[in-house]
Design goal:
The complex is a heterodimer. Chain A is mainly beta. In chain A, the strands form 2 sheets. In chain A, strands 2, 4, 5, 6, 9, 10 and 11 form a 7-stranded mixed sheet that branches. Chain A starts with a strand and ends with a strand. Chain A is about 0% helix and about 50% strand. Classes of the chains: A mainly beta, B mainly beta.
Chain lengths: ~110, ~120
């Protein structure tokens, strides 16, 4: 199985600041079609995860443009430019290159 | 607007079988991979498996032998059966819609809290 490792575990942020979350995979997620099969999800308390980013850098429908995904191969970053109070929750990366799909352990973002 | 609605028993005894069903309302059933994911305190988010409208499925090897998925295209529903439940299987089970090629889970069911206890 592909192992997904996220850092940091916890990220206290001040509203308006930029937050970055790192995700590393145990093998490359870059497919021969040029796409990286890496998703980012946000799970707010009491809710199902919601898709933020797919294929490494494509923002999902309805997701604010303060969320951006970057990286390739085995190293990826989710950036939140200008964190808002509604962005608190646990962020997960997930590899979609091969089954079984696997998730990172999560990064908890809260407001300082 | 496409919605997923899931149902099934939430309290099981050890060795019993979990049965959950997820219905797709307001959208196409074909062309997607219908997926089950669970979340437990000890293991985080875990992909259980996926099935498409023709019944082609992939399961997590960690659950191989215990998991079966099926589809009912006449009702736009798909189901999960997980046998020999133990306390380690306790968690929230959710259905979701994925794409061939993996992931991109934009649509989710409401989740079912499943507890296994004698």
């Amino acid at each position: 199985d592909i192992v997904m490792t996220q850092s940091p575990l916890s990220l206290p942020v001040t509203p308006g600041e930029t937050a970055s979350i790192s995700c590393r995979s145990s093998q490359s997620l870059l497919y021969s079609n040029g796409y990286n099969y890496l998703d980012w999800y946000l799970q707010k308390p009491g809710q199902s995860p919601q898709l933020l980013i797919y294929l490494g850098s494509h923002r999902a429908s309805g997701v604010p443009d303060r969320f951006s995904g970057s990286g390739s191969g085995t190293d990826f970053t989710l950036k939140i430019s200008g964190v808002e109070a509604e962005d608190v929750g646990v962020y997960y990366c997930m590899q979609a290159l091969e089954t079984p799909l696997t998730f990172g352990g999560g990064t908890k973002v809260d407001i300082k | 607007q496409v919605q997923l609605q899931q149902w099934g028993a939430g309290l099981l005894k050890p060795s019993e079988t979990l049965s959950l069903t997820c219905a797709v309302y307001g959208g196409s059933f074909s062309g997607f991979y219908w997926t089950w994911i669970r979340q437990s305190p000890g293991k985080g988010l875990e992909w259980i498996g996926e099935i498409n409208h023709s019944g082609s499925s992939n399961y997590n090897p960690s659950l191989e032998g215990r998991v079966t998925m099926s589809v009912d295209t006449s009702k736009n529903q798909f189901s999960l059966n997980l046998t020999s439940m133990t306390a380690a299987d306790t968690g929230v089970y959710s259905c979701t819609r994925g794409y061939l090629g993996g992931g991109n889970f934009q649509l989710w069911g409401q989740g079912t809290l499943v507890a296994v206890s004698s």
